């Protein structure tokens, strides 16, 4: 599958515009997930992007956004706290429910992992929650700026350096995280839980994963990230975590709607039938048992899960020309290394076509570019090019064709 991404904004609980990305799978999403990034990070961190990519590869759309005052989002970071992060997550879920679909999956990294554990109980549609390097106690983050805690408590605010960037932290932030108690929340958890943590995590120790896992009820799972760092900066670690989350999450999604069984075809017959997976999604079964999906682009109401009817028509013509040129070159002993045909279809005005019999209205115009590579003389290239015009499919679509259809009873 290929991945598409769209930018959008939505209002936080406090009315601040938050910057978000919607990562979409190819075709209709099977479900939606909501991602919460780590403390003072952004939605563009490598781990965030890779988890989104893996989920979309499995048909799950992902919304990831910057918390208030971070990344491209509005607002003042110094006025935020853990509770406001939870409120941002709930606001994101409400926006998704209104504009897209409510999230069935929550994924949180580091402090974002602690936030999704709290937010999950406030989003009824959530069925599964995954945390990566999450602290069991949000107050754990104070060790990152421990040298400034006393100043913050005495003066009410201080500038601290986090990941090499300056941030202002107020006393209300410290008061808020100290007031959090996740254990009873996790103990009453009624969602599937996946805990991922690196034993050598130097930012949030592995004991945090043990506390979260022990407090939770089943279904719960734990996966070790081995020698990964806290931020999963090594791409192989981000890829592994993303793949595990994506595979695990599918077990807890609402079952996909049943699709119609693919029809059977007989030798010499091609069967085309709707699959039920999308508005225009069809399956093509040839007499030799080959199966192809056909669809329309998203722009015209399809899911873009396969070639369009005109794509298939051009494909039939192009492959016929290529095969005919190959047969001819081998029969003549020409050193044809590769035959390539590039085709396009358009509608043109009849009066723009000098060689056409039709003189009014519009006609179908197919342009084919023949590219021949190999140790060929100009005369050999010309001969191979001319034979392509005589391929069976070319002759079929340029001659009189009778199409007869019966209505089955």
Overview of this protein structure:
Helix 1 (46-57) runs parallel beside helix 8, helix 2 (82-99) packs across helix 3 (111-119) and helix 9 (309-332) packs across helix 10 (378-388). The mean pLDDT is 90. The chain contains eleven helices and 15 strands. 32% of the residues lie in helices and 25% in strands. The protein starts with a strand and ends in an 11-residue tail after the last helix. It is elongated, with a radius of gyration of 29 Å. The strands form four sheets. An eight-stranded mixed beta sheet has the order 1-2-4-3-5-6-9-10, sandwiched between helices. It has a three-stranded antiparallel beta sheet with strand order 11-12-13, with no helix packed on it.
Quickly describe the structure.
By secondary structure, the chain is an alpha/beta fold. The protein is built from eleven helices and 15 strands.
Cα-to-Cα separation, first versus last residue: 39 Å
Helix and strand sequence? EEEHEHEHEHEEHHEHEHEEEHEEHH
Low-confidence runs (pLDDT<50, min 5 residues)?
none
Number of E-state strands = 15
The coarse silhouette is elongated
Measured on Cα atoms, how large is the radius of gyration?
29 Å
Calculate the mean pLDDT score and round it. 90
Overall SS class: alpha/beta
The side-by-side strand order for the widest beta sheet comes to: 1-2-4-3-5-6-9-10
How large a portion of the residues is in β-strands, by DSSP E? 15-25%
